[in-house]
Every structure is written in structure tokens, then in C-alpha cells.
Design goal:
By secondary structure, the chain is α/β, with parallel strands linked by helices. About 40% of the residues lie in helices and about 25% in strands. Strand 4, helix 6 and strand 5 form a beta-alpha-beta unit.
């Protein structure tokens, strides 16, 4: 099951590699600027950007550190990202599973991972691997879509994402992420819970090419109950769904020094 899920991830991102590079959601300059401000990188650092995708975080962090390792499970995605970032020095591109990182213990000053963990079959293993490769006192900054704490809204959102994107596993609740960090003695230093607005058309077509499925996903949003429509800020016109919003969690944690 785990290997099958990772194969789906590779298939999805291989087909849509350029869409992720060009995505306005993934290439949000304000978001990337805030990430660097929180991380407070130093010139001597080695940084791992796990599940780098289109390489947006790796590119944003690179000017401030010694070396960035941009890692991704999907070779085709990584090859395309490397081509886009070929002019940037001091960046290495590594084919790597975020749940089985091919790096030594205590190797990185910082690890980043943005809009990716909802694709991971075993997020607990991922967090354990992040802790292992971080130096004592090292920082981990993660941004990802999260599920509402309400179980019904959680199910609605994750079912919607799974239908749009077969490589989606599950967006965790913030409380679940906090428990995983606590299990690995990763101390939350700063966090931000927010909603981000997604343009429906580009969101649904990025990973779902079947028009029948696209319409079914749109209908699920249009026919949602009043509470669900309000929570996800679903807006529509005569032509269909225009935008909706999802929860996003930005968190900076630190590995204990002992």
C-alpha cells in the first residue's frame, strides 16, 4: 500500500511537473519571504528542502546559506526543477524519499518542507527522519494544508482532495502535527494558522484531467451544506465555483540540544 501510494505521487508529479513550477499558489513571493524571515538562515548553513517540487523554497533560501539540497521523490519533477534553477550555484539536487532520507545523522542546520506532507503515507516517519538529520538546535520549518479540527469538515476536505489528486494521502489536523513534533522532542517556536484562497479552475486542473471528475468535484463544493460553504469560503457565480479557501499551517520547530 505504501509503495503503491508513492508510485501515485511519482506519476502525478511527473505529469504535472511544469504546472507546479508555474503555480501561483506555490510561487507566492510573500509566503516565501515570510518563510525566510522565520527561518533566519545563516551563511554557513546546510539546508535540506524535502519534497522540493518546483524548487520555490530552495530558490528562496539559497542566497542566505552555504548550500541547499533540493530533494524530491520524483525524478522527472526534480529534473525539470533543476533545469529551471540551473543558473543557481551551491544547490544540489537529490532523488530522495522524505520518509527515508539518504543523509547522515545531525547533518543539516535546517530542513524545510512546503505544501507536500499531505502526500506522505507515514508523516510520523517523516518527522522522525527530519529530527534525525537535523543538528541539535537545528530548525525545521513546515508549511502545509491542514484539515479542520471538526471531523465532518476534515472528511469533506480530505475526500475532495483525494478525488482531485490521487497522490493525496491526508491533510492532518494541526493538533496531530503538534503531537508528532512532541513525540520527536521537536519544540514549536512559532506557528501561524491561516486560510489561503485557491482559484478553483487552476487548482482542479493541476492534477485532475478528466472533465467528468472536474465537474463532480465542483458539484461537491456547490452542493455542500451551509456550514461547510461558510467554513471553506466557497464562492461561485453562474459559471460555477470561482474560489474557495483551505486551512494552512506554518510552523517553526527546533530540535533539542541534548
Amino acid at each position: 500500500m505504501k509503495n503503491e501510494q508513492k508510485r501515485r505521487v511519482q506519476e502525478t508529479f511527473s505529469k504535472n511537473k511544469e504546472a507546479y513550477v508555474q503555480s501561483t499558489t506555490h510561487n507566492n513571493p510573500d509566503d516565501l519571504k515570510l518563510l525566510v524571515e522565520w527561518l533566519q538562515p545563516e551563511q554557513h548553513w546546510r539546508v535540506l528542502d524535502a519534497a522540493t517540487g518546483g524548487g520555490h523554497v530552495a530558490k528562496a533560501v539559497q542566497p542566505f546559506v552555504h548550500r541547499v539540497y533540493a530533494a524530491d521523490l520524483t525524478k522527472e519533477m526534480l529534473q525539470n526543477t533543476a533545469a529551471h534553477l540551473s543558473s543557481i550555484a551551491d544547490m544540489a539536487f537529490i532523488i530522495a524519499d522524505a520518509e527515508e532520507l539518504p543523509f547522515l545523522d545531525d547533518y543539516f542546520d535546517a530542513v524545510t518542507c512546503r505544501i507536500a506532507p499531505h502526500h506522505f503515507p507515514e508523516p510520523d516517519t517523516f518527522v522522525s527522519e527530519v529530527s534525525r538529520v537535523l543538528k541539535p538546535g537545528g530548525r525545521f520549518l513546515m508549511i502545509d494544508n491542514t484539515a479542520p479540527e471538526d471531523d465532518q469538515l476534515d472528511h469533506f476536505y480530505n475526500a475532495l482532495e483525494k478525488r482531485r489528486d490521487p497522490s493525496h494521502v491526508r491533510a492532518l489536523k494541526v493538533s496531530e502535527w503538534e503531537a508528532l513534533f512532541n513525540d520527536q522532542s521537536l519544540i514549536v517556536k512559532k506557528h501561524l494558522k491561516r486560510q489561503k484562497t485557491l482559484p478553483f479552475s487552476s487548482w482542479v486542473t493541476r492534477t485532475q484531467s478528466c472533465p467528468v471528475e472536474q465537474r463532480a468535484i465542483e458539484q461537491a463544493l456547490l452542493s455542500a451544506d451551509t456550514n461547510t460553504k461558510a467554513y471553506f469560503s466557497i464562492t461561485s457565480s453562474d459559471s460555477g465555483v470561482e474560489h474557495f479557501s483551505v486551512d494552512e499551517y506554518m510552523v517553526l520547530v527546533e530540535k533539542g540540544s541534548c
